[in-house]
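Appendix B, record 7
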Amino acid sequence: MSHCLSSTLRCPDENCTAEDVREKITITLAQRVIPRGDVKMKKPILTALALCALLLTVASLATPATAQEEGTTQPTTHEVTVTGTEFTPSDLSINKGDTVYFHWSDTNMAHNVAQSSSADSNEYDGQGWRSGEASTTVDFNVTFDNVGTFFYICEPHAAAGMKGSIKVFDPDAVTSAESTPGFTFLPVIATALAAGIVASRAPIAPIKIDNEG
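Structure tokens (predicted):
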């Protein structure tokens, strides 16, 4: 292949420029896939097609770096304690299936934890989880099997701002772009194809491909 290119790409004189060589390479590569003779194809079209071929090859080999295999995430337990009239930490971001462990022992004030309907609510929503009546010692676990944002309060001290939130995410939910190799290259490939179409609509002049070599 290198011998064929070297024999085909000889410059006709010493004034041969880099642009002349690039043009010669384009024409030579075109000979491998286009019947010889007069071919009405401009260099931008050849360049776009070559770029598309390269991108498709790279896309076929690409693998997502951030995608996770379904079911591989192990559940985790997160602890929430009490400091004065505050939950510590008050806000959590966890995965679906994780457990939040609320616990405190021999505190100066009695506390409880109860699910509320919103960040502004100071009352138990009447349907969600609740540790029971306020106490100085609490051990209470909640496992979250649904995604979403859940709010909670200490009923005796909600008006004083003793509140928190728990955001639950699904770690196995990945987008099609992450789970399918090469999908992230589609916008680039589409752009290159569009460039080829636009170039094909432009006025073109025939390129003479000689039959020598």
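Remarks on this record: Residues 77-169 form a domain with the Immunoglobulin-like fold (CATH 2.60.40.420). Residues 1-9, 33-39 have pLDDT under 50 and may be disordered.
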